[in-house]
Design brief:
Keywords: FAD, Flavoprotein. 36% of the residues lie in helices and 21% in strands. By secondary structure, it is α+β, with helices and mostly antiparallel strands. The chain binds flavin-adenine dinucleotide.
Amino acid sequence: MTAHWTEETTGSAIPRAAVIGGGPAGLMAAEVMAKAGLTVDIYDAMASVGRKFLLAGRGGLNLTHSEPLERFVTRYGERAAVVSSWLERFSPDDMKAWAAGLGIETFVGSSGRVFPIQMKASPLLRAWLRQLDGLGVTLHTRHRWIGFDDAGKPLVRNAAGDTVAVDAGATVLALGGASWPKLGSDGSWTGLLAEHGIAVRPLRPANCGFTVAWDEGFIAKHEGEPLKNLALSFGGTTMRGELMLTRSGIEGGGVYALSAALRDAIERDGEAVLTLDLRPQLSGEQVRDRLRRPRGSESLSNWLRKSVNLTGPLPGLVRGVAGSSTEPSRIAPLIKALPLRLTGCRPIERAISTAGGVDLDELTPDLMLKRLPGVFVAGEMLDWEAPTGGYLLQGAFASGLIAGLGAADLSRSFTLPRQDLAQNSSTS
Ligand SMILES: Cc1cc2nc3c(=O)[nH]c(=O)nc-3n(C[C@H](O)[C@H](O)[C@H](O)COP(=O)(O)OP(=O)(O)OC[C@H]3O[C@@H](n4cnc5c(N)ncnc54)[C@H](O)[C@@H]3O)c2cc1C
């Protein structure tokens, strides 16, 4: 299959490009292609675009992070080198400038995370869609991509059930991962690409919750309660954060930051032991000193509350591990290093993001599939992952931009005389 980018196939001297998937990665690809002068059509399976982006804005849209770029890129782990090459073209500063260009000012929160002043995604998405409309981009909602025809054209099925071959010289696939499938990204594209021999790494939950075999009495009493101001450790990494107790286990920012390593360990060993420091602001010695206070006839909960200010579910957690041996020499080390046995990952449907996806070896540096020339891939459907903190959207936007620029370059090489091509490349 090759790009079919001629006047004959497009019916116009202006090249057409298609974006399939209207999340942040696809919209960014559409923006750069439209700005490069292409006629762009966006197809999305849902009735509206950017649904996960809107959900991301519900708890405060964390667009990117303000930490130095050298540290920023380490958040992409094994993929740091390749993502760093994307960030050279669209950096965290570019993200802020881009939002400002849409009239959305940002601020840096106390954690260093960057948010729009309004916190929500909806004003940003509205302004973005208005801009795309002004650039002549056409949205086709309720159009599901179902593969390619024999000539390599993308096939979409519309709401009436008709299958339409999309006339586009270049296509950017930005179909997302497999978390929150009810918002549109359901990972069903994996089989469609595998049919073309494209290696796709299994989609796995990232930034996800974990299962814990709670004592029934404990969880009945504490379900939905947060554990605040913890230090969580696993595999040599310690993070400050908080957790939420759920009926099936734990959720929350604190564990998301360690979730890739925990998930890998569970897949390998069947379980992983997360260590919680319940009083990170006290040293082990200070905890031991405070527990010298005689317990007398006090309940364990009262004694722990009065001695080391353990409240809410925390005494119960300690009791669950200590069992009947409640002497200070047993309890003090548990307060500083409580082992919590995680027996599984919560389903990908409830994860913040997805690990796995199109193997990066399948792609050229501008994110075109080597086996399907003219087809580019961007966003969460690529095989990279990152913790929460703005790194996910930054990666989705930056890869969308790279794929869009690649598609625009390819388009120009098909349509412009050589001297125009040289001129355009030097200004792009
Ligand atoms: C609860 C939650 C909170 C989050 N908060 C943040 C945050 O604050 N900061 C951050 O950086 N990240 C956050 N994220 C992650 C972020 O939303 C994603 O990383 C981002 O949306 C990925 O963008 P994408 O364009 O690659 O995919 P998506 O946003 O998933 O978009 C994919 C699009 O493709 C469409 N599609 C899928 N299959 C087909 C098909 N076959 N045919 C046609 N269309 C199709 C879908 O309908 C969808 O519109 C959050 C995620 C969740 C779930």
